[in-house]
Write a structure and sequence with these properties.
This protein is α/β, with parallel strands linked by helices and 261 residues long. The protein folds into two domains: 2-56, no CATH class; 63-259, no CATH class. The chain contains seven helices and twelve strands. The strands form three sheets. Strands 5-10-9-8-11-6 form a six-stranded mixed sheet, sandwiched between helices. It has a three-stranded antiparallel sheet with strand order 2-1-3, covered by helices on one side. A hairpin with an 8-residue loop joins strand 8 (190-196) and strand 9. Helix 2 (78-91) packs across helix 3 and helix 4 packs across helix 5. The longest helix is centred in the C-terminal third of the chain and has 19 residues, at 167-185. The chain binds pimelic acid. Residues 170, 173-174, 177, 195, 197, 199, 204-206, 215, 227 line the site of pimelic acid.
Length: 261
């Protein structure tokens, strides 16, 4: 689902909400109602354009993957938090210049993109040619909702910044971000990710590298409505194949894998 304030096709409407689900057919109707509700009563406004696309997925084509391990770091200023992302991404081998270019690219966006920029993990060069649209990671969800929620609650207990608008909102944001980041990390050539929300009242962002998802607060000043996402790839990665995997491969993030790891 993609919901916007105005004309979502022309790109003129301000983004309100986006959501991806992968569910059994019996649940589709109730999920559609939930998506409608979410788009119409979002705290960013009531959407005037809502695109909901439903694709049938062959269960045999679904890839099951474990979630990333969640860590958390809290800083007192945005610059300290952003500086921390250099050290964290360096653990995954991502160069300083690539992180600097990614931080600059997100902070200088005039408005939030629908998808992610894909950037070379060493040179920091943007690799995709998808402009303002970027790459939208799609066709994923978590399996075993209750188990997954328990996993996320444990992670939130690591540190819940008050500025995030309460545990319910943080749970919802974390759920979606961990599912997306885990799928991103399961692609060939993936090196890491840097992201913060376009929600003006949600300053927590994250970096991911290897098998780690590290929440970092505050990645932006309160009230700032622009967020973004950069996916880092190792040089030589077959770009078209990796983007195709991110956009089309059905993936379920499965908590059980995590317990056996
Ligand atoms: C988004 O809203 O698009 C990004 C959410 C980042 C979530 C960070 C977290 O709470 O772990």
């Amino acid at each position: 689902m993609y919901a916007a304030e105005g004309d979502a096709h022309g790109g003129n409407g301000r983004h309100i909400s986006g959501c991806e689900r992968l569910v059994t057919e019996e649940r589709v109707f109730s999920i559609l109602a939930m998506l409608w509700q979410r788009a119409k009563s979002h705290e960013r406004g009531s959407a005037r354009t809502i695109n909901i696309r439903v694709d049938a997925v062959d269960p045999a084509s679904i890839r099951r993957i474990p979630p990333l391990t969640i860590e958390s770091e809290i800083y007192t200023t945005v610059s300290a938090a952003r500086n921390a992302s250099y050290a964290l991404l360096a653990k995954g081998g991502i160069s300083k210049i690539a992180v600097r270019r990614a931080l600059e690219a997100i902070s200088s966006l005039p408005r939030s993109m629908r998808g992610a920029m894909v950037v070379d993990a060493l040179s920091g060069e943007r690799l995709d040619a998808l402009g303002e649209r970027g790459v939208r990671i799609s066709h994923m969800d978590c399996e075993n909702e209750e188990e997954f929620a328990k996993f996320l609650r444990n992670a939130l207990a690591l540190g819940q910044p008050a500025a995030d608008g309460g545990p319910q909102k943080a749970m919802a944001k974390l759920r979606e971000a961990v599912v997306l980041a885990s799928k991103a990390a399961s692609a060939e050539g993936y090196a890491g990710e840097l992201c913060w929300s376009d929600d003006p009242y949600y300053p927590t962002g994250y970096v991911a590298h290897g098998r780690v998802y590290c929440r970092i607060t505050p990645m932006k000043e309160p009230g700032n409505p622009v967020g973004g996402r950069v996916l880092f790839l190792w040089p030589g990665t077959p770009l078209a194949e990796t983007i195709d995997y991110w956009q089309r491969q059905p993936v379920l993030v499965t908590r059980e894998f995590c317990e056996s790891m």
